[in-house]
Fold this protein.
Amino acid sequence: MIKPKQVFLGCSFKKRTSSYIYLALDVADQFDVTLVFGDNNPRASDIRDQAFKLISTSRVVILDIVPDNVNVGVEFGFAQGAKKKDLYLLTRKPFLKSVQLPSMFQGLQYKSYRGEQAFGDRIEACLAEHYRKRNSVIEQDDPSAEPWLKREIDSLVNELGRTTRGDLAAILNCAGPDITKAANVLHGQGLIGREANGYDTIYFRLPNRVLEPV
């Protein structure tokens, strides 16, 4: 099952043991998400299986493509095969110009960076597309709020199968009334179902229905 607040970051071991990773962890804290890595297990024979499991259960996958890092290439292939829709590629600017990318990476969109701070900025840009910063408030007059909530709720209900309004509010870091408003729109369109559950409500994806692009 997808863990909505889990983000997989594939990068070189050199970055994992440098200040780069502390920047990435600081950004993850801003969005109240958990950053996971495929090489945390000390047993080398288990690294591949652990990486694949974490990619499968992560909502967002971010891969840093650098020279001589075969592991990240394998992780990319697995993420593609698993049809991960929230997949981002990062790379250093000099790498793109000085090294010929393997054919499977050609034609793909990258967020390029130069230096540590830019690396953190690119990760922040990836997460900003899916999470609101901790303690943020969606203003009633924000024209982007309702489309964003509609997209996010549909995505999360589709991934989780069944979830409560309270869980959705916690995941999206916004107030219950905003969640209820967006969920009511989706329910009115016949795209999600709902049922009473004491003081809360359970929402679930209705079969054979597809959302219009928001």
